Amino acid sequence: MSPLDRFHPLNLVRRSQQPEYSILPNAEDESYYVDAEKSSFDSRGSSATSSSRPSSDSQQDAIRSPSGRRRRRPNGPGIYKLPNVIVRYMCFAVIFAIVVFIGSLVHMSWASSTALQLGGNGRPRPPPQWESFQFLRRYYGGIRTLVECKENIPEYPQQDEEAEATNSTDTSANATAHGIHRNVKLPPSKPFNPYPDYSSEAYLSEYVNVRECFLDANSTIPVPKVHAYPGIPSGMPDPIFGSYDLLGLREDVCFERFGRLGPYGYGYNDTHGSTETDLDAELAEDGSGWRENAKVDFRGIRWAEVQRRCAMANSHRFETRKGVKRDALLDMGVAGKRLSREATALGDGTSTSREKRNITQAQYNFSGDATEGEGKKKLPRTAFVIRTWSDYKYRKDHILFLRAVISELSLLSGGEYTVHFLVHVKDDNLPIWADEKIYQQTLRDALPEEFWGLGLLWTERQMNLIYAGLHESFHHDLPVHGAYRGLFMAMQYFAHKHPEYEYLWHWEMDIRYIGHFYHFLDRVSRWAKEQPRKGLWERNSRFYIPAVHGSWEDFKQMVRVQSEMETGSQNSWASLADNDPRFPSSGVDSGVNKPVWGPLRPEDDEPLDPDSDPKPPTSYEKDKYQWGIGEEADLITFNPLFNPDGTSWSLADDVTGYNTTRGLPPRRAAILTSTRLSRRLLLTMHNETFRRRHSMFTEMWPASIALHHGFKAVFVPHPVYIDRRWPLSYLASVFDYASSTGSGRRSVFGGMEHSFRGVSWYYNAEFAGKLWMRWMGARVGGAGGEDEGVRGEGRMCLRGALLHPVK
Question: 539-567: per-residue pLDDT in tens?
Fold first, then answer.
């Protein structure tokens, strides 16, 4: 080949296709690779600078391998290959993390949409305005600071709102001015007697004589009397809702725990069936007269027998009623003698058959001498039904409370009230209806021994059988026959089976009354009886705040005007709720609202018995506040009867069996079920439930039936206390802002119910339990205790007040 052939194009192509190496270097010769790479780098660098043409043969030959094998480069030093198992696990971990991440995104999206539907804005809400208000202190004043009620300067409320807002001084100075010191001589307490003078000529000219009741069968142990102190602790606040004077309640006396509960066993050891407490330190200088009552050994008391003896002795005082009705569910067609035996089986099992028959007559027939007291007024009987359940745990203060109820309502009144326990058996599978022994054992296990014979059992399955056919919507995931949604079903059936009672009080175990039970219930019933029907439903829906509304007549006129004009109470504090998403301005009712006058029936639902419903004697405009005066109330409540329509109350639409194609039926509701119901109202509820398959949520049912049938319902403005110094105008804007019927998005019933935590009466009232525990001498939040009563102002002394809940 000539030298010029070397540059021939064909030769260049053939030469480029020839293998680069003929012999591969040894793998062990690491220096070769280093030198080869370095020379390759140098050659590329030099060719780039000189020419793009191929290098000369000498340069190509220098990098050619003497061997024809292909070059194989081993892994570089320090590089480690992960095992496949570890790589696989790492992949699984990455996939799992991705799945969790996607799931969290989905959950956050769902939570955000739910919060948006509920009106949430994703930011934590600030604490309620009222939590920043100053606490009141003079509720805890003691008996060493007693002053006459008319001389008392209440810590709260004050009419001067500027002084109210700036008064942050310790109002205990007011108490100091009246001489708080250790050596103050205590005034003697006095027996508290709210009963009529049964032996007076005035009473006997109108009613028949009353026979005294005793705790024993030999009539030797009298019923002990409650004691109260004249006056109230200096600086004690006035109630923010309601009024003592309006209802005729005593506001010039106060009750401390020994005078109130000492007659029923508080203050002595268990050797007399009483509760333990140390009296030495507290009572060393106590001049109170409650200890004048003889000690009663409550271990041998059987309240059922005591109550029945009292009812028999005074049966001539009351209207004659039929006895207990035959119960086909329990009787199954057996002769009436067996019914009598089963009715008497509520006793403690120690009486003879003859005694049991007498007991049955006393409790269910009440048949006395019809000719005795002829021509004089006879009284209707009233049942006081306490709701409890089979596994309820009774503390010592529960026992004291129950002894007080029976003594004050039944025994000392000459049998006007009869106390029953309506015991809910939560275990539906317990065969109490199949075996009488199981029924009796369950009943005895459910109540303390001294109250055996006063209880009646009921179950939800029993109510499902009696009131069959109700549409089951499972509102709030709860059954319609359950104790939450259908609590009054048991009361309806109780009234149906006990025609001897004209009125029935429905009570709860977590209620306490600091005061005398008969005094309170008697005055409440009398006041409700004298209320005119004109404007009654409108007044029922509002809180009466004396410090804001003035006298009761002023309040009546204000409600009348606002009902006609339908205006809310506007003030500077109302703007606090303007930015609250829970209470939009558009939710406030507007327009003229027609006052309730007579029955307000549901649309498209045929009335059950319209001819028997009360009818107004004249038009609303012509009535001069006369219709209803002197008429007993069919329903008495201790919270306002508000219209739940348009409120944020979550149970407003719990309606069963009604035609709702054109909207929900007219409704009213009263929070808490402690009420008095007439036999007429309960039987109407009973018929509506089993005939028409109608029902509503427990706290709506009695009030709504009263509204539909034109029955008289009354909210009683009883005294309610508050624990903080609320500005009065702000308080009115919160508790009394809604429309004349209590409806509207700004109603306190619903989203604003947290405002009740500082009052003494509501389902979530935290102040109630604290006040009761301090009154009982316990330490709460580092304050109080029995030692404080010795070193400080003495034992707490409070005016009569309802407290709920006390857990």
Answer: 999 999 999 999 999 999 999 988 877 64
